[in-house]
Amino acid sequence: MTAAYDPHGAAMLDYERGITDAMLVCEQDGERDDIPAAFWFRTGIEPLEAAALDLCRGRILDVGAGTEIHALLPQVRGRR
User: Would the pTM count as exceeding 0.90?
Assistant: First the structure.
């Protein structure tokens, strides 16, 4: 797959290659919303994200397309 068809993966690959200012150009609700690739490599999560993860029960499926940051907290807490 080429970068033109996988912008998320291309931005993350650029970041891994040391291009720490790599950006993913997105459109959200009709507005341009550029997201730095570093966002997916952060080590902590926002309070709202943590609160949502606190509500998870039973078996959990992380349907994200990132670096699994949201899957780690439930896993550490012993959730499947």
Answer: no
pLDDT averaged per 10 residues in sequence order, the chain, 80 residues? 64 83 82 84 83 85 72 78
Q: For residues 33 and 23, is the Cβ–Cβ distance under 8 A?
A: no
Rounded to 5 degrees, what are φ and ψ at 36? -70, 140
- For the chain, domain boundaries: 1-41, 45-80
Helix (H) or strand (E) holding 28: strand 27-28
- Residue pair 20/46 in contact by the 8 Å Cβ criterion: no
Report the alpha-carbon distance of residue 3 to residue 52 in Å, rounded: 32
Query: Rounded to whole angstroms, how far apart are CA atoms 46 and 26?
Result: 21
